[in-house]
Specification:
Double Stranded RNA Binding Domain, 45% strand, 5-stranded mixed sheet, globular, single chain, 31 strands, 2 domains
Length: 388
């Protein structure tokens, strides 16, 4: 009875705060340095809601700790609805109180976590409704899988028992491109997740692989071996107007796009693999100067804010690095590979090698803290790509 009474009092207090501080909610923000790991404590939540809120906040540079060490108290209750707020422990000021209802416990928890992030990490784009695509391997068989960003609602999209590689999204999160060996020679398939329809996107003589769709949805880059060497090509998003962008004997792979859809960053290997840039209309190919990362430099991904490229270096094991989009000193982030930026340009999903398997993990780039994505499918998971 006491517990029920306390819960009712908390909900009433939040409702009062909603009426008296609705205007302040638009202006009160607690900005912390990006690299600062914010100590928080969570109280009042139970079960799945507690698990979801804790996971969401910890992948954005917050750390659940004891109440006497926390700077912010994330408190509330959950049942038929979720009630939650944030207290600044040093000032005892309640921030952004709100009542959430009309969805599953998981959806309500994500919505509340988004509001907490708006207060403690202002300016970040929401990611908790995001989806990912990745490759799963069971024995010698590979399939394409999709799930929520945190691994939930996972579903296998193919049942080919064949090699697949490099899944990537069309803008909007409803269609995929990936390379498949299902019908013999490698081809790039277009896969509509809504209808299940699949059709060839590129099946030129020789290898067809490494597809990547521009952020504006107008073009697709890919690597083709139609002339006997692996070169970078670009075409319309419907496969029309194919144009060759590189004309060397180097081995090209892994194209990714600048957020304005004007420049492609890709890997070229003639000896040691490195990163290069070329305009979507063709012209001069420029090498990206990178200092501090050694070995083969591969698998670039350009952040949505245009500032940073994350990549893999395989010198002394696989390590994830970041570098300015204009080049310069590279920063080692974490042991891993296959990095893909979230829409907030802060979070990266990547692959870790753990106990002889590959698992997906979420990295908070400024703090370098990471958490494994809960495994909902058996086998190894790799090559994640975040829908934007």
């Amino acid at each position: 009875m006491k517990k029920q009474f306390a819960s009712i009092c908390f909900e009433l207090a939040l409702c009062v705060c909603l009426m008296t501080s609705a205007k302040a909610e638009d202006t009160v923000r607690i900005a912390k340095p990006a690299t600062y790991l914010i100590p928080i404590t969570l109280t009042g939540f139970t079960g799945e809601v507690l698990s979801v809120v804790k996971f969401d906040l910890e992948i954005l540079g917050m750390e659940a700790t004891a109440p006497d060490k926390a700077e912010f108290i994330i408190s509330g209750s959950n049942g038929a609805k979720l009630v939650g707020g944030v207290t600044d422990a040093s000032k005892n000021v309640l921030l952004a109180p709100k009542i959430y209802q009309g969805g599953s416990p998981r959806a309500l928890a994500h919505a509340f976590a988004e509001d907490v992030v708006k207060q403690l990490r202002p300016g970040l784009k929401g990611i908790f409704n995001g989806r990912i695509v990745y490759r799963v391997q069971e024995g010698r068989d590979f399939e394409i899988a999709v799930s929520d960003f945190d691994g939930h609602n996972a579903a296998v999209a193919t049942h080919d028992a064949s090699l697949v590689n490099g899944p990537t999204w069309f803008p909007g999160g409803h269609k995929l491109l990936y390379a498949s060996w299902k019908n013999g020679p490698t081809q790039i398939l277009e896969h509509d997740l809504t209808t299940g329809e699949r059709k060839p996107f590129a099946k030129y003589p020789g290898a067809n692989y490494s597809p990547s769709v521009s952020p504006d949805g107008r073009h697709a880059a890919m690597v083709l071996n139609k002339r006997g060497t692996s070169d970078l090509y670009v075409c319309g998003v419907d496969g029309s107007n194919l144009k060759q962008l590189t004309f060397t004997s180097d081995e090209e792979s892994s194209p990714c796009w600048s957020p304005d859809s004007r420049t492609i960053c890709f890997v070229a290997r003639s000896g040691r693999a490195g990163l290069y840039k070329v305009n979507v209309d063709g012209g001069l190919v420029q090498k990206l100067s990178i200092r501090g990362a050694y070995g083969h430099i591969t698998e670039p991904d350009w952040s949505p804010d245009g500032k940073t490229i994350v990549f893999t270096s395989n010198s002394g094991g696989f390590n994830l690095y970041s570098v300015s989009a204009s080049g310069g000193d590279a920063e080692r982030l974490v042991e891993g590979e296959d990095g893909s930026w979230a829409p907030n340009s802060r979070t990266v999903i990547f692959t870790r090698r753990e106990n002889g398997r590959r698992v997906l993990s979420l990295l908070d780039v400024p703090t370098k803290h990471f958490k494994n994505v809960p495994e909902k499918l058996s086998g190894s998971s790799s090559q994640p790509s975040w829908a934007r």
